[in-house]
Design goal:
The chain has about 260 residues and is mostly helical. Helices cover about 80% and strands about 0% of the residues. The protein is flat. The mean pLDDT is about 85.
Length: about 260
Amino acid sequence: MKSSKWTEWTWGKAVPWVLPVALLVAWQVTVETGWLSSRVLPAPTAVMAAAWHLGSSGELWQHLSISFGRAVAGFAIGGSIGFLLGLVNGVFRPAERLLDTSIQMIRNIPHLAMIPLVILWFGIGEEAKVFLVALGVLFPIYVNTWHGIRNVDAGLLEMGRVYGLGPWALFWRIWLPGALPAILVGVRYALGIMWLTLIVAETIAADRGIGYLAMNAREFMQTDVVVFSILLYALFGKLADSIARFLESRLLRWNVNYQHRP
């Protein structure tokens, strides 16, 4: 029994990290043996040394807090608007007829293509970066919320009405639980777009944040800091995805499709 549990733990926790660790080892070996120039791609140990220097000087935490604040603010604003629009358009057909066509037209405009216009609107301050992140995360959450609401079992809704549930009770007991798997898929997708948008936004006329850290290091040919900045985005993306999966496991325990996942 213990052996089975150990095997299950290894498969679930350790195996996903085998490939990243193998790539790190191969990266270190190719740089140390001279197959790959350290000016093109510094060794992982050099990147770790740069990270240690930035962390010990306090510079890293300052940029991290700024980027994290921008990401959270943009996600909260865009996610809330996307959720409410998806909810309203999913439940009320007249609202969908009125709003969905306009939303779909805006959705098909690449939000990063709006950077020149956003700079004209908001300048190069925090508002422009938060607006771009909010615009990026709005549509994945809108589409998935709308899709989840529309696919709620009509038989369950009819049963709820027969048992005398009011609109509020129908929402909490049937609409929201039924749509939650699709909404969380939208959240996972939106989290990836959130970091992608932040990377681009912070490399344009920023004076703080991880993007600024990378662009400033580029000016001084500090390739190790540039690589470290890129890895930070990758780590944040993985952390955000892990949080979303944790929420899935907690909020969808009632759903058999999300039970007993390795």
